[in-house]
Design brief:
two-stranded antiparallel sheet; 2 strands; 6% strand
């Protein structure tokens, strides 16, 4: 397979480093063993850090033969992107799961594909739940015994 060469500005290279870090983190954060294909790409991208002018943001661990982001830079990326994503996806998943629960209460066990009526009902339920959560957060959630 032929190699692919990219020409990037320093700013583009820095964004590529960030994208590769965040993507690799997302893929590997839930696994017991690292996905080596993602790690290989990450290593290939980070190994060009001197050419990309990122000596202050990437370090090379000679004993291990790997490159890593500087701890402060990594923390900044995590705080900026991962925390925001986690916050958004938490509320999105919460609304989705609560609406599925409500749909199941109305229609019984749901099949793989919702009917048009069920889809319309789901959208209304999601809007209502989303609105309530925006107004009150989780303070008004309750679980019946």
């Amino acid at each position: 397979m032929p190699n692919v060469k990219l020409e990037l500005t320093q700013d583009q290279y820095e964004k590529l480093v960030e994208a590769v870090f965040l993507g690799t983190w997302m893929v590997n954060s839930t696994k017991m063993e690292l996905d080596e294909q993602f790690e290989d790409v990450r290593e290939a991208v980070l190994s060009k850090y001197k050419e990309g002018g990122l000596e202050d943001k990437v370090t090379h661990h000679e004993q291990l033969g790997v490159h890593d982001l500087d701890v402060d830079y990594e923390s900044k990326l995590m705080d900026t992107h991962v925390e925001e994503y986690d916050e958004f996806s938490f509320w999105d998943k919460l609304v989705e799961k609560l609406s599925e629960k409500e749909l199941t209460n109305i229609y019984g066990p749901l099949g793989d594909k919702l009917t048009e009526e069920q889809m319309e009902k789901r959208m209304k339920i999601e809007e209502e739940i989303g609105r309530k959560l925006e107004e009150t957060g989780v303070t008004q959630l309750s679980f019946e015994k």
